[in-house]
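Hello Y.,

Per our agreement to keep a running log of every chain we model this quarter, I'm adding this entry. I've kept the format consistent with earlier entries: sequence first, then predicted structure.
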Amino acid sequence: MIFNVTVTGTSGSLSHSVTVSFKVVQAPTPDFSMSANPASQNVQQGSTATSMIVVTSINGFSGTVNLSSSAPPLCPSCPTWSLSPRNVTLPSGGSATSTLTFSTTTGSPTTTFVVNVTGTNGNLSHSTTSSFTIVAALTPGTVCIAPASSTSCPSTPLMAQGTVGGQLSVAVNVQNSPALNGFDILVLTDPSVLRPVSDSLNGTVLQNVFVVRNSVNSTSGLVRVAAVSQGSITTAPTTGRFFSITYNIVGATQGTYILFPVGCSGTSNDNICVTVTSPNAPGGVDPENVLEANFTSTAPPPDFASRTSPSSLTIIRGQSASSTVTLTSLNGFRGTVTLSATITPSVKKGPGVTLTPTSLSLSPDGSTTAILTVSTNGGTQTGTYTIIITATSGSLTHTTTVTVNILSRH
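Predicted structure for the entry above:
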């Protein structure tokens, strides 16, 4: 209905009016709306998915909304679903939620189920739907620590070996995996034995690689590499290399692990920090088994080193000169070292060579010296000579050389 109100203003003989119309309409009825988030999703056989049912106040509605869902099908392997809570209280202008849980078995049929959720309050009733498509369970592949030369996984855990002072390289590979387009993997070692120094994505199974994260922590022994393929996905089953790691072997051990640490969520293997991603997998993550490695190392055998200083002598005929021979213990070597010297070419009037002493004792991590003396006289033949000093202890033999130039006196 419309009401017209006329307002008149006067001043002496002046008078003016204006008419204002008012239309009376019915006030909007308080109501509510319903939606599902997500409204549709894939669910892998044997897993569970949830959808959030959102109830929203309209036009100042407040009150309790009772929720119910369509009944699940009755068959031994069919999925089931439930709502919690089954009623929600809405404040005016607000919203409330209930969780729709959809559960499957490994034998659930691979088809789409549409769950209808209805909310009622008095004579008000609204519905929304959530669609769940059951997909076949993915067969897990294997992510492993493998020999550096390999692009697949060993049948049993790798037993790697090395020597202190050397290096070890390993590959992080995947075998028989569902199609994938990326990974985020952590690898941990005992840094007192294996200290990571570098990693490499050379030869990775990914195409058009974008590196998301790459960190090598030599203090903690932790390596983390995350990368994705830009615009591509591999073909299942996928076998190949993800990346490789190089370690310095810094300690001896009868056994330590090269492992994937635990404590991560939403990964390819529950709690283990290995995540292989795929847009085709439920939740975007492929299931994977893991295979770690064992490492043993030994200290290098005891040995010694020899060197001369200076390694070159220039002598005026009739004079003499000397060079110091230094022996150094390596890896705890202890023992007696015998020295001998030979000179080439061997000529009748060549320079004289003496070593003092010719027998030396070395203690672990220690060093000792001998003196090589080269003497000449007026008849010594000029030219260049090479003196080879041989140091021997049991089966260990090392040589070092001194070059001697004999010049004539002018």
